[in-house]
Amino acid sequence: MDNLVIFLSFVVGLFSLVLISFKRRYAYWKDRGAAYLEPTIPFGNLPMRQVHFKDTTGPIYEQRKPAAPFMGAYFFRTPVAIATDLDFIQNVLVKDFSNFHARGMYVNEKDDPLSAHMFSLDGEKWKSLRAKLSPTFTSGKMKFMFPTVVDVADRLNSTLSEILKTEPELELRDLLSRFTTDVIGTCAFGVECSSLQNPNSEFRNYGSKIFDQPLYGALMQLLIIQYPNLAKKLHVRVFQKDVADFFMGLVRETIDYREKNEVRRNDFMDLLIQLKNGEALDEHSQKLGQVTFEEIVAQAFLFFIAGFETSSTTMLFSLYELALHPDIQEKARQEIETVLSKYEGKLTYEAVKDMVYVDQIISESLRKYPPAVNLARQAVRDYLVPGTKTIIEKGTAVFIPVFSVHRDPEIFSNPDVFDPDRFTPDQIKARHPMSFLAFGEGPRNCVGLRFGRMQSRIGLITLLKNYRFNPCAKTSIPMVFKDENPSLSPKFGMYLKIEKL
To answer: Which parts pass through the membrane (predicted)?
Structure first.
């Protein structure tokens, strides 16, 4: 009996200590005079069930306080700041970037070299890689890769034409992923993936595995980010080992073949090899130092996962909205035909640039369905928030809820309505520069945004020129997203009725 009393006293005492610890921790934002939401033990302000990543910050953004630059919140026991004001977002991403240049992502170079890519790295490693890789995405480099993307788009057209002979209603997500897989495989690795001809190609299988079979859900990913030292001690990986082995082997074979046979293809891999050998990328750029083999693999892998998923879903959601809005679809098709007639029917780099309305459609699709639903930054030193007495302490994470900003009716009227005219030059000029964050903003914006836009434009133009898209009985209206995927992905696939013109 005495032992039972002692045990129960110990349990009650331990529980009380844990409770007191949480209570003290949850006074963090209140003690600093910041606007905040009351947390709940032990999840803080996180939902108590599996939700999409956008819904970890969305409900907090919706309860924002007037004139507050951010809302203080808690992810488990960790205080975080959820940006709710566009001026504050501009300070974090642009004006005071030197205070927030870190992302605070989990990187484990030893156990998982693919995780050490430019998107996740911070500090001098990020700065050095960014300086080395930025010249690979100039407009001049895009012109070199343009014909390659057009060739793959032509194969997309041929493949879809064959499929439609037996299947007038089609699930498009897989087909578009195979298109972007072939583009990225060719431009980043110099490999003919043939995913369009063979849906079960190795490249396609590993690409789908990354996104459709993630190692961890959103809550576990947040835990890894918040406790990176513990995760490293436990040898936690970000990507599956077989995925890492495949890409490491592929890049090694590609580099060995090209260097032994003096092969040059004017693609992304060529540029990475030049950097590996310490060469300047062109006559105007300076030598920036060599990159290691592991760095090459990680950056090529980043190019693959970024270009593969974001461009295919951008095209996917664009076609979805165009199917629901036949008038907008027809207006885009007329522009395509008019511009192509000026260029003798050829899809040239200049012709694509002239298709302004198509670009507006892509921008509006990126607004409604941003590839990154949240942006993360981490304070690298104590930061006094302008106009307040609140200090965001070093190491504190700031989350920018892109999806919520893009769907905010105070920023975009009738935000659920698909309207490409939101992106006319006058409309863009009239809005706050931080109102559209599909590619991020500031020095850590998406380095490959030119390539992503080019790939999406070429794919969309090719499809609209040759096909008409309509909803069918299987089309999901309204759109429902898959919770397990950190980016926006249709839960029930994307079925559309397609008519060859």
So the answer is: 6-22
